[in-house]
């Protein structure tokens, strides 16, 4: 790959971190600063068209994210690893699980997109389709998925970050990858330990959605709801998120 991924820590517990649609390898907020670097090694990947790889061409598919992720962990010499995925990264982490051939020790999804994709009504379709080039659409999506309760200053900064960190064409193309791809038959019944974490103020990827998807598909899946969080727990409640992630990893 053209750019080396960001690795935080040198600890024995290996974790691959896959970002969301509005994120990047550096888009994990205060959560990333709290990682215990002696206990964990966390590889934060940029997808093609994002972050350090913003100018890199690609097909912008889940299969491509997975192939790049496996190349990155191979370059680190990791034989096995857990995968942490936020939002779109929650879909990608399941693609990695399927493609990695038993190397994944556990999945931690933070407001994760299910392997079924996300069905949109006409209004939502227009909102999300228009987000590639429109600041107002991105702001509205951020506001909606965090419960319409957060600071305009923070929302504006998140919008700017997403524009700075992603190529608009790639951003638009990834919508089909996470919303329009259904590979649920490939993960059904997989025994890997799974923890899904959602915010109580996220109306889109809620506890009910997790119960209908992840908890039906993975026999060893469990659900945690974070109070005072919406879709972006790594910013809204970073210490609470860190605590549940650490507990899950340490139990593997």
UniProtKB/TrEMBL annotation:
InterPro entries to which the protein is assigned, alphabetical: AB_hydrolase_1 (IPR000073), AB_hydrolase_fold (IPR029058), AB_hydrolase_sf (IPR050266)
Domain AB hydrolase-1, first and last residues per copy: 15-241
Q: Is ATP-binding tagged as a keyword?
A: no
Q: What does the UniProt keyword field contain? A: Hydrolase
Q: Which GO terms describe its cellular component?
A: membrane
- TM stretches of this protein: none
What is the designated name of this protein? Answer: Alpha/beta hydrolase
Q: Name one Pfam family in it.
A: Abhydrolase_6
The terms under GO molecular function for this entry are: hydrolase activity
Its organism's taxonomic lineage begins at: Bacteria, Bacillati, Actinomycetota, Actinomycetes, Geodermatophilales
């Amino acid at each position: 790959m053209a750019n080396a991924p960001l690795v935080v820590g040198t600890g024995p517990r290996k974790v691959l971190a896959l970002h969301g649609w509005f994120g990047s390898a550096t888009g994990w907020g205060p959560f990333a600063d709290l990682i215990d670097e002696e206990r964990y090694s966390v590889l934060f990947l940029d997808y093609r068209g994002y972050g350090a790889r913003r100018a890199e061409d690609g097909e912008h598919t889940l299969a491509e994210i997975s192939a790049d992720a496996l190349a990155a962990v191979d370059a680190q010499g990791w034989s096995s690893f857990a995968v942490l995925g936020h939002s779109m990264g929650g879909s990608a982490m399941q693609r990695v699980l399927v493609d990695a051939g038993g190397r994944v020790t556990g999945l931690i999804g933070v407001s994760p997109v299910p392997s079924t994709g996300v069905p949109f009504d006409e209004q939502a379709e227009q909102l999300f389709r228009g987000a590639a080039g429109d600041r107002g659409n991105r702001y509205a999506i951020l506001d909606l998925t965090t419960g319409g309760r957060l600071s305009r200053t923070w929302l504006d900064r998140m919008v700017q970050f997403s524009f700075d960190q992603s190529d608009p064409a790639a951003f638009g193309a990834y919508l089909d990858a996470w919303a329009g791809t259904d590979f649920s038959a490939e993960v059904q019944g997989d025994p890997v330990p799974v923890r899904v974490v959602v915010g109580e103020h996220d109306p889109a990827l809620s506890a009910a959605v997790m119960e209908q998807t992840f908890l039906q598909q993975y026999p060893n899946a469990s659900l945690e709801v974070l109070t005072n969080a919406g879709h972006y727990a790594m910013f809204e409640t970073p210490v609470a998120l860190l605590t549940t992630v650490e507990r899950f990893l340490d139990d593997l």
